[in-house]
């Protein structure tokens, strides 16, 4: 019951369907009750008319004379009527019977010898007083059968009416569902509003509020993006100058202690520069104006990425290589593909220890391309797999320099390209032996097709 109450409280359509169905059921039951009562009464009226008609027929044809027996079942006239005829006179009167000559003409109900009768008494033109009687139980049985038949239309139409009502309610709420789908498809990367022409009047104020909220949200996000990009640009120049000065200091003769301090200074400046570059990349990936799409070779882009990261990999002692020669062509902005692969490879090298390996492979599937980057690093804790795509999230691993923006940038690009990413910890004998990152990008012909893994 609590579940039903919660469901009704949460859904206007459910409440409307529930109450409309309840009203239909109650009204159908009430209508069926009235129909049964009226049909039952009408059946009794018809049975009374039948008794009256039989009496008129007997009177008209002169079927009764003084010599008739006391009881006569008129089976010869109507076998199904079960009407009993009695001639009421003093000669054949039975003192133990309720049927006596003193009975008033017309209709009456009486009980005789354990049975209840509906009796019609009349005096014929020949002067005979007769009674036509029907057993009340039989009359009620016939009346109930007729009344029950009258319920069939109501019982047949009620479920049809319930189904049609719920279908109509669903139909009426289709514009609401359509508006919800439109809101769900809106992108935060460009200003969007919901067309009010197709919105029902009842929810138009709500949709107008949504449009206003979306506009404010878009402008707020644009301001944040511009602030981050401008701040990164403003800091890039002084950081470059500081880096040059640190290199100049490092080239001069100094004591070992001074060299260690200069080395730490250079490391800090390099981390700051890397953070600024990642911030600028993150802001650029979220900009509305992007490079035009064109055919891009995955293998060629990977070679460019490896050329840019090989020095860093060699300095760390990490073996990086392509394990497949399969190539695939995707139609997208070259900077998107390069940035995506660069961040994946850079992350793999960054968190792989010395003498470790990073393997990259490309696989052409039916309607998408899979790019797999597998390393021999420490992996990611299972509980953190869903959090690593948040900006600046680095978990508990702070031993390696980084900004925590790499996978966030990858996620932003994949959302725009309608791709997917899957992270999986590799294990051997219940020990984590590395992380495998699989990226799935739809081909140009199947760009709007959902990737099913």
UniProtKB/TrEMBL annotation:
It catalyses: ATP + protein L-histidine = ADP + protein N-phospho-L-histidine. This is histidine kinase. It is found in: Membrane. GO terms for molecular function: phosphorelay sensor kinase activity. Gene3D superfamilies: 1.10.287.130, Histidine kinase-like ATPase, C-terminal domain. The chain crosses the membrane at residues 16-41, 147-169. It is a multi-pass membrane protein. Keywords: Kinase, Membrane, Phosphoprotein, Transferase, Transmembrane, Transmembrane helix, Two-component regulatory system. Residues 230-445 form the Histidine kinase domain. SUPFAM superfamilies: ATPase domain of HSP90 chaperone/DNA topoisomerase II/histidine kinase, Homodimeric domain of signal transducing histidine kinase. It comes from Vibrio fluvialis. PROSITE patterns: HIS_KIN. Its EC number is 2.7.13.3. One of its GO terms (cellular component) is plasma membrane.
């Amino acid at each position: 019951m609590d579940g039903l109450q919660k469901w009704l409280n949460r859904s206007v359509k459910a409440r409307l369907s529930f109450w409309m169905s309840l009203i239909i059921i109650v009204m159908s039951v009430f209508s069926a009750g009235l129909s049964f009562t009226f049909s039952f009464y009408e059946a009794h009226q018809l049975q009374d008319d039948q008794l009256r008609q039989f009496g008129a027929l007997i009177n008209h044809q002169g079927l009764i004379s003084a010599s008739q027996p006391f009881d006569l079942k008129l089976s010869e006239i109507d076998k199904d009527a079960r009407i009993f005829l009695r001639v009421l006179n003093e000669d054949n009167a039975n003192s133990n019977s309720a049927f006596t000559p003193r009975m008033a003409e017309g209709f009456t109900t009486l009980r005789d010898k354990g049975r209840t009768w509906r009796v019609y008494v009349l005096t014929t033109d020949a002067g005979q007083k007769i009674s036509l009687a029907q057993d009340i139980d039989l009359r009620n049985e016939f009346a109930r059968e007729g009344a029950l038949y009258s319920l069939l239309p109501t019982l047949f139409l009620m479920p049809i009416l319930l189904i049609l009502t719920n279908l109509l309610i669903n139909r009426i709420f289709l514009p609401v569902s359509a508006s919800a789908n439109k809101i769900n498809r809106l992108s935060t990367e460009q200003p969007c509003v919901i067309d009010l022409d197709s919105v029902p009047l009842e929810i138009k104020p709500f949709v107008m509020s949504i449009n206003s909220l979306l506009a404010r949200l878009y402008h707020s996000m644009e301001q944040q993006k511009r602030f981050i990009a401008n701040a990164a640009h403003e800091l890039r120049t002084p950081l470059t100058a500081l880096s040059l000065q640190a290199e100049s200091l490092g080239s001069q003769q100094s004591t070992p202690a001074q060299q260690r301090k200069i080395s730490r200074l250079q490391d800090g400046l390099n981390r700051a520069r890397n953070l600024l570059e990642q911030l600028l990349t993150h802001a650029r990936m979220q900009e509305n104006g992007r490079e035009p799409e064109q055919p891009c070779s995955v293998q060629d882009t990977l070679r460019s990425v490896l050329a840019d990261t090989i020095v860093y990999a060699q300095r760390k002692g990490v073996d990086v290589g392509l394990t497949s020669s399969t190539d695939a062509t995707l139609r997208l902005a070259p900077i998107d593909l390069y940035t995506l692969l660069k961040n994946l490879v850079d992350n793999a090298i960054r968190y792989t220890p010395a003498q470790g390996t990073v393997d990259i492979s490309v696989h052409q599937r039916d309607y998408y391309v899979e790019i797999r980057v597998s390393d021999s690093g420490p992996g990611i804790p299972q509980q953190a797999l869903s959090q690593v795509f948040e900006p600046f999230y680095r978990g508990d691993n702070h031993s390696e320099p980084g900004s925590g923006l790499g996978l966030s940038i990858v996620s932003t690009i994949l959302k725009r390209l309608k791709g997917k990413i899957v992270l999986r910890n590799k294990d051997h004998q219940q020990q984590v032996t590395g992380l495998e990152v699989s990226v799935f990008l739809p081909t140009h012909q199947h760009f709007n097709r959902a990737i099913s893994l």
